[in-house]
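Design review, sub-item: ligand-bound model
Attendees: FS, YL, KQ
YL presented the inputs for the cytidine-5'-diphosphate complex:
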Amino acid sequence: MNKKLKIAIDGPAGAGKSTVAKLVADKLSYIYIDTGAMYRALTYKALSSKSDLHDGRILQSLLKDTNIELEITENGQAVILDGNDVSKEIRSSEVTNNVSFVAAPQQVREEMVRRQQELASAGGVVMDGRDIGTHVMPDAELKVFLIASVEERARRRFDENTSKGFEADLEKLKEEISLRDKRDSEREFAPLKKADDAIELDTTSMSIQDVVNEILHLVSERAG
Ligand code: CDP
Ligand code: CDP
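KQ shared the predicted structure:
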């Protein structure tokens, strides 16, 4: 497997994109790019500076002065915003419930896509998000669209939270996930959408390892 591929993994919240993308990247010694973390970092900055989350021009100028780096550390990937590690802060429920607004304006998307394409330019990359197969890497050799029932996705988030000792409410998680999916799918620019040439995997009854194995199999078919 010598050819360094571009692998796009898209899908709704909690479908397993980041978990699976990281494992696939590790296995192939590829870089992993979590594009959701970039939108989350901008949202965190917009909330901290009390910016209007619905004004594309304000968000555009905020982003222009914002440096976002994804760093590999001993504990996984760290998100560095203007020199500060915000890996934990960007996972707060306040950021989670507002990120779809910040990710909607065309001005924000154009600049984020430009940065993401620069990061992916050398190939040998696994990138996950909502518009990777459709907009960021339309030339990706492998596109995977992960789905799972909303009940299963909420259950996964519930287990994730409770295992870390956080409180969680299954019904509330289900509502939040459904609302975010709706906003992400219905926005005008680069909505959450399966690319025509993406392979859809329903992971509702699949373990993480099953999904990783399936993707590695698809990679081996393409890498020659
Ligand atoms: O991990 P989870 O599915 O909860 O979300 P994420 O991947 O961290 O993405 C957070 C949010 O960023 C999504 O709900 C989208 O609003 C936005 N996003 C996007 O618009 N485009 C991407 N390529 C990635 C994320
Ligand atoms: O990135 P995305 O929002 O699509 O999902 P994730 O953060 O990778 O996965 C959400 C949770 O589901 C994590 O705790 C994973 O360990 C878990 N998961 C699972 O139980 N079974 C799978 N097939 C995939 C993920």
